[in-house]
Amino acid sequence: MTHQLLHQSATALDLNSVSAPPSSKHLLGTTANGQDVLAQLVSGTRESMLAGLVASVLGTSIAVVVGVTAGLAGGIVDSALTGLTNVFLTMPGFALIFVISGYTRGGGPVVIGIIIGLFGWAGGTRALRAQAMSLRSREFVLAMRMLGESRWRLAMVEVLPHLIGWISAMFLGGFVGGVLAEAGLAFLGVSDPSTISWGIMISQAQQGNALISGMWWWFAPPGLCIALLGASVALVNFGVDEISNPRLRNANRSLVKRAQQASRAKEVSHAR
To answer: How many CB atoms lie within 10 A of CB 130?
Structure first.
């Protein structure tokens, strides 16, 4: 796909354009091996986002199941799941991910994403548990319990819709965290070197002394993409939170109304 769009292969070597700066032939220049940086950037986007997506889906799913179950069930189930969550919270997460990724080196972005997701779910679980416990004592949930509704239906129909904002924020945060973790693991050399990702590009640039040689076009594009991804996901998260949180939505409407009133008052004063 990259070759079809850019007419360049991410792995092809152009020995006549080694360490070349951006030009009409290579829009983002080439690496020390003569590989096109733009082709690598586009190809690496798929790998980095795949790792982030797998980590986010797996981590968010585990957090929702554990947090909501603990909050609604209470008793022994809550104590057991809370204890399990605390164990994962006290674990040195990145160190364990680093060690396990080293043993599974060569597994690709999916394996990296699975490892990150398995050790990155505990952070948001406690927040979901607290929200589920708060919803458990609400009148509409108590009424559904009195009518004999099962806990499964209560969780799916009555509780989860009220947690969409929290779950969305957790998913988006986990996505960015997965991309950053994959980049960090690749930079430290425990990712599959045969694949191309943003982290692999930065790692190869560091090994090729790109910073010392002044080859900014080798390491700057993947770093900038990671930064832009984080900023864009944060903006999406703000938008989702505004839509799903009635307090923020009403507050924004009030601010807009006040701004309109102030603008009209200013126009009237100028007219006089």
So the answer is: 14
* DSSP helix, strand, coil percent of the chain (3-state; round to 5): 75, 0, 20
CA 32 – CA 270 distance, rounded (Å): 64
Burial of 145 (0-12, 13-18, 19+ CB in 10 A): middle
% residues pLDDT > 70 (the chain): 84
C-alpha–C-alpha distance, residues 203 and 222, integer Å? 10
Are 191 and 112 in contact by the 8 Å Cβ rule? The answer is yes
Structural domains of the chain, with CATH? 42-271 (1.10.3720.10)
* Beta strand segments in the chain, E: none
CA 38 → CA 109, 125, 204, 242, distances in Å? 20, 39, 15, 36
pLDDT in tens, 41-98: 998 898 889 999 999 999 999 999 999 998 888 889 889 999 999 988 888 877 888 7
Find where tokens 């505990």 sit. Answer: 122
Residues 6 or more apart in contact with residue 105 via CB below 8 angstroms: 190, 191, 192
